[in-house]
UniProtKB/TrEMBL annotation:
Annotated organism of origin: Pleurotus ostreatus (strain PC15) (Oyster mushroom)
Protein name: Uncharacterized protein
Lineage of source species: Eukaryota, Fungi, Dikarya, Basidiomycota, Agaricomycotina
């Protein structure tokens, strides 16, 4: 019998490289004659989706937020159960300023609403020690020890309550006195609380994607609070 056709490529690696080179030659030939709308040949590399690091950060953040909103209802129900359990075992409320008389939760005049604004502001500043960025780093260190999501979710519950209180104060002050210095003071405090809540939700979104994603974003300084 005849020996047959001699082998051109002795190994599968040689054959793969030869096919890749052939595809490249075909691609460049078609490119010269203007046929660039054809599918990309194998071996020419994957096209870049994000041209800048900022685009990649924004895309990762959007992906995390989509996942967070998908599971927000389940997270909220777990928070509510845990919050009720904690308040059943411990009914005492911690006041941020001990020497201040606790204002009513439903004031009827401007001084009463302003007292509630300042009490809520004092609670918030006491919680974050006057610095949101340092407080977030402290929470990160706690998470490194416990590796539990409630390191962040428990804090979110408390800050969401503060945000709700400030919003009620703003609405009441707007009705009673319009946009004056009292309303602006409440608005400033509300923005601080909202900023902290956004930072916490940003971290929680990444954490829900997985700890690998969470630590990678922390290392790359992609979290909102890291740019404050």
């Amino acid at each position: 019998m005849p020996p047959g056709r001699p082998k051109i490529y002795l190994t599968s690696e040689e054959k793969t490289l030869a096919n890749r080179a052939k595809c490249k030659r075909s691609y460049h030939k078609l490119k010269e004659i203007g046929c660039t709308d054809r599918p990309r040949p194998a071996g020419t590399g994957r096209p870049r989706i994000y041209k800048t690091p900022e685009e990649k950060v924004l895309a990762n953040r959007a992906k995390s937020k989509r996942n967070y909103h998908k599971q927000k209802a389940a997270i909220g129900s777990r928070r509510a159960v845990r919050y009720r359990a904690e308040n059943t075992t411990n009914r005492r409320l911690r006041n941020a300023v001990q020497d201040r008389v606790t204002p009513s939760n439903n004031p009827v005049d401007i001084p009463g609403w302003m007292a509630l604004v300042r009490q809520t502001s004092d609670k918030f500043n006491t919680m974050v020690h006057g610095n949101i960025k340092k407080y977030m780093e402290e929470l990160h260190r706690r998470f490194l020890v416990a590796h539990k999501h409630n390191t962040y979710t428990d804090v979110i519950i408390k800050i969401e309550t503060m945000e709700s209180t400030i919003k009620r104060c703003q609405d009441a002050l707007l009705q009673l006195s319009g946009i004056d210095n009292n309303f602006r003071e409440a608005e400033v405090e509300g923005k601080k609380i909202k900023e902290a809540l956004s930072c916490l939700e940003d971290v929680l979104c990444a954490l829900m994607e997985g700890e690998t994603e969470f630590f990678q974003m922390y290392k790359s300084k992609e979290f909102m609070y890291q740019s404050l």
